[in-house]
Each structure stands twice: as C-alpha cells, then as structure tokens.
Amino acid sequence: MTLGFMPLPPPYSQAGTSSQRFSLVTNFKTFTTMAEIFVGPKETRFLVHRELLTHHSPFFTAALNGSFAESISQTVKLPAENPAIFELCVAWLYTSQLDPLVFFKDGKPAYYTLLNLYALADRLALEALRNQTIDQISDLAEQTNSVLTPSDTRILYEEIRDNAPLRALVIDLFAFKKTDKLLAEHPDDWHPLFLRDLAVYLKRPGTAALLRHSLQPWRPVSWQVTKACDECSRVLEPGARASACVSCAKVYCLRCLQRGEGRAGFETGTCRPWKGGRCRLYHEHRETEACQDLVMGRGGE
Ligand SMILES: [Zn+2]
Ligand SMILES: [Zn+2]
Ligand SMILES: [Zn+2]
C-alpha cells in the first residue's frame, strides 16, 4: 500500500484517469464538500465526501461535477439501489477495504452480498471496488472450500452484465473444484445459462485436463522478481530455469519438474487460477492500475 505524497490524478472530469489509490492522509485537505446520496425507495440519506466519490467513480464525477441539477445541489438519488449494499460501498470508499466478517451469515459465506456489491460497483463505475470484490470471493472460496449456491447463480446471471469477469471466476471455481456432487444433487435449480456456460467451458478443447497446471518456461531476471519453488521452497536465483503456471502463477524449479514428470497431472496441489492469476484473469484495469503483486511473469521471460 502506498501512503505518501501521491498527487491526485489531475483532471477529475475525464473518466479513465483516476488510476491511483486514494490517500486519506494527504488528501483530507481537499475534502471540502459533502454530497448527499438518497438510496432506495425510502430515500435513506448518506452524506459522503464528494472528492471520494469523484475520485473513484466516473458515474459520480458526471453527476457531481457536471452541469446537471445534481451537481449544483450535490445530491444524487439512487432509488433502485439497496441501502444496505450502498452502505458497504461507502465503508469501502473510506477504508479501501472490505471487512471479511460482513460476508458471513450463520457461519457460511454470504456470496449473494458480494454479488450484489459487485453489481452495484458496476452500476456506479467503481472498478477498484469490483476488483476487491473479486479478491474477496476468491479468498472466501479458498478459505471455506465453497462455491456459490443455485440462488447465487441467479444473481450472477440476472443482475450482472454478460461480459463481467466475475462470471469467469465463478465458472473457474466450479470447474477446478470438486463440484460434481453438488451440481448433481443440490435440491434447488441452478440458473440454466450458468449450466450452459459451465458445460461449454468444460468441453472446450485444451481444458480437458483442467486440474493440471498450464506450465510455461520462466526465468527470474533479478532477485527482486524471483520466487521460491512452490514444491521444494528453494529460492530460484536470477537466471535459473524454471516453469510457471500461467493460470495460478505457481513456480517449479527444474529438479522438481523432472521429478514430477510422469506423475498424473503433476499433482502438487491442483491448479487454482483464482489464487495467482486473479489480476490477469478476473480484474478490470481500465481506470485503475494493475496489481503488481499478482501479475504473473513480471520480469520473467
Ligand atoms: Zn496452476
Ligand atoms: Zn523445487
Ligand atoms: Zn488487478
């Protein structure tokens, strides 16, 4: 995380330029105006610093900096939105974080809350929030070894746009995890388009051996970008020949690769693209900077 004297991206009015993380420490002095947001049919009122909204969201930039009536009164009405979900969005604006505890209900992951948050972040053009929601879903699926429920797939296919990378993440979770029993035996109906997408994905040539890593040659060019072998933990010195999985970003030294050869699928833990490949596969970075810590092969060949 970068806290420091980071200048704000200059023209707020141009969508696609707010690529940097908002720093509360250096930018409090610019927090001069509040915007009033009325959410839901009962017009629940939220007071939010305008600079936070316009920094992150081209939607709010247009609404609050333009020549519309809203920009003069600094009010925005969102009658179709859910105040509880908008509240999560406001908490994120002020903290740049999602509280993982919020996404559990009765000890189970509340994916539906995250899906609704993603849908809201999409409508409000909050790219960074969408990416963090992707991370939260990935972490939750990993920690609790769970996937979405049939009713979650309805939100995914009815509330969220067709080309959202969130759909790719969910399909990967079902494809790479052991979900055959769950799919076959769950008493509720999965969304038919979800089942179609999953079937097409599983039948696509080249993904037949889904549990395998997709290994490609990789060499660390310096100590800064090197990694340890995920099998034997030996740190790879710069220039060392190794292989990395383009999906999950796991790295294997030559010795482990040779020993692994011949073993079924080189099963050193199955491939989980949402662990190492989430930025490349499921994030969007049209308005925000790519996450360097998760980019695969940076500095590699
Ligand atoms: Zn992999
Ligand atoms: Zn090794
Ligand atoms: Zn990213």
Automatic annotation (TrEMBL):
InterPro entries assigned: BTB/POZ_dom (IPR000210), SKP1/BTB/POZ_sf (IPR011333)
Tree of life domain: Eukaryota
PANTHER family given in the database record: BTB DOMAIN-CONTAINING PROTEIN (PTHR47843:SF2), BTB DOMAIN-CONTAINING PROTEIN-RELATED (PTHR47843)
Protein name: BTB domain-containing protein
SMART domains per UniProt: BTB
CDD domains: BTB_POZ_ZBTB_KLHL-like (cd18186)
Pfam entry (one): BTB
Domain BTB: 33-99
Organism: Mytilinidion resinicola
